[in-house]
Amino acid sequence: MIKEAVYHRPKHNFAYAYDAETLHIRLKTKKDDAHSVMLVFGDPYHWDQGKWQVARKNMDKSGSDHLFDYWFTEVKPPYRRLRYCFELHDNLESLVYTERGFYEEVPLDDPNYHFCFPFLNSIDVFQPPEWVKDTVWYQIFPERFANGDAHVNPEGALDWGSAEPTQTNFFGGDFQGVMDHLDYLQALGITGIYFTPIFKALSNHKYDTIDYMEIDPQFGDKATFRQLVEEAHKRGIRVMLDAVFNHSGYYFPPFQDVLENGTDSEYADWFHLYDEKILTEPVPNYDAFGFVASMPKLNTGHPDVKHYLLQVARYWIEEFDIDGWRLDVANEVDHSFWKAFRSTVKSVKPDAYILGEIWHDAMPWLEGDQFDAVMNYPYTYSAIEFFAKNNLTPSQFTDSITYVLHMYPQNVNEVSFNLLDSHDTPRVLTIANGDKNRLKLMYVFHFSFTGTPCMYYGDEIGMTGGEDPDCRKCMVWDSQEQDRDLFSFVQHLLTLRTRHSAFGSRGSFHFAFHDDKQGILAYRKVTPHETLLFILNNSSSKSIVHSDDLDQHSVHDLWNGEQISYGMKPLTLTPFDFKIYQLD
After folding, report:
1. pLDDT digits (tens, 9 = 90+) for 323-335
2. What is the rounded distance in angstroms from the CA atom of residue 218 to the CA atom of residue 200?
3. 328 catalytically annotated
4. CATH of region 247-299, choose from 3.90.400.10, 2.60.40.10, 3.30.70.1450, 3.30.160.270
C-alpha cells in the first residue's frame, strides 16, 4: 500500500462530534489501494490484567474521487474518551496506522501511540439550527423583485421592466412588493427568504452601507419591514439579511469624517489608512473591497468598530425577529470578530442561522465557534459544469461531489447553503444556453442534494441574464411571459422534498452507479425508514439502464405516483430524462 497517501487528523472534518454521544471518524487512502479498513479503538483508561482493552469496527468506503478513497464509521464511546488507530488491508499486506506512524501489529502496550479524541464535551458539539435542514431559500434582490408602493420610489425610478438593468438605474422594488407576493412564494414551496442588503446606501445593490441601523427609504420604513417579517413567519417563511461588515460605503459618516480630517479624525482607526492624506484616485491609499474606493475596509479589530457592528447584529434580531445573517466577504474579516459575532447573535436567538460568503475551503470558519455554514460554491462549480455546460462526465462529477462532501463534517454539510446562481453570477438558464431540459435535470439534483438549497428570484419562471448587471433584471410578473411549466416543475420537486424526509438533508447521500458512455448518474438518499433512488440521464441520447435495485424491487415512481415492477427488464430513459424511485 502507498503509505504516503494515508491521511487522518484527529480533528476538523476527519474526527468530530456529530452529536453529544457520537463521534465520526474518517480516513483517506490512495484510490483503489486498500481493500478494507478497520477502526481499532478503546478508552485509554480501560485495562484488564495489564492489557489495554480495544474493540474493532469495519469502516465503510463513503466515497472516492480520482485520487483518493474515503472511509467512514461512527463510534459511541461509553465514557466519551477515545484512542484509536486504523488497520488497513489489501491482497498482499496489512498495516496499522497510528499517530506515531505505521506498524505491523496494533500497539497495545501504550495508548499514547494512538490518535486521541480526549473527551466529547457536549458544549463543543457543532449544532447548527435544526430548521435549516428543511429550508428552501429564495434569494431576493429587493430593488428588482416587485414595486408595491410607488410613494417610496427613489428619484428617477423607471417604469417596471421598461429598460435593461444597469449598475446605476432604479425600478423601485420595495418591501410592500415582497409582501404582495408572499403567497406566490408559499405556493412555490419556499420556506426562507435571503435578502441582499436592505440598509441605507447610495447604490441600487446596497453593498455600500451609509447607515447600518436604518432601512433604505426606497424599500419602505421599519414598520413595513416588521410587518413583512411577521407576514413571512405566518406562512412558515424565515428571513435572512445580508450583513456587510467587511467594508462600509463611501458616505458612511465615520468615513466622511476621515475624508475631511485625515488621520486627525476620531474615526481614523476605524479604517486601514496608509497615509495622512486620504486619496481615492487612481487607487485608494487605504484598504478597500478590492480596489473599490467607495467601499473602504472596516477595521473590525478596533474595539469601537467591533462594538458598533455587534450592536447592529443584535438590533435587527431583537427588534424585527429576523432568522439569520448572511455575511458578505466573510473570509476577509478577522476570526476574533466572527467569534464575538456568533456569541452575540446566539445569545439573542440561539437558532439563528449564520452564513458566511466564502468561495473556497472554509473549514477554519466551521468549527462551531463562528459560522453555521458557508455558501457552497465548490458544489456550484461542479453542478454548473456537469449539468449546464456538459463539461464533466458522470465519473468526473461524482469525483468532484465526493470531494465536496468530504471537505466538511456531516453536520456542516446538512445545512450547507447550496446555490446555482445569484446576483453575482449569470443566471443558470443563460449558463445552460437556454436549454430547459438541462435546467430541469439540474434542479432534480439541486433540490435532492444534501444541504439547504437556494433559488435566485425569477429562475423558477425561466428568467435569463448574463453577468452583473444583466442578472439583476426586474422580476417578470405577467403570467403570460412566465414559464408556468417550469414553475410547476420546481413546485413539484419542492413538494416531494417536503413530503419525503429522505429527499432533502434528512437523507444520507450515496452515489449508486454511473455510466460515462451513456451520461447516466444514479444516487440514493437514505433514512432508516426510506430509500430513494435517483437515476438521471444527462445526455441528448436515449439510454438503457440495468440496475440491481430495479431487478430486486417493486418500486414506487415518486414523480408520477405509479407503482412499477421491473423484474429483469432494463430501464429506458429518454434524453435528459430522470426517475425518482421509492424502493420497497
Report:
1. 999 999 999 999 9
2. 9
3. yes
4. 3.90.400.10
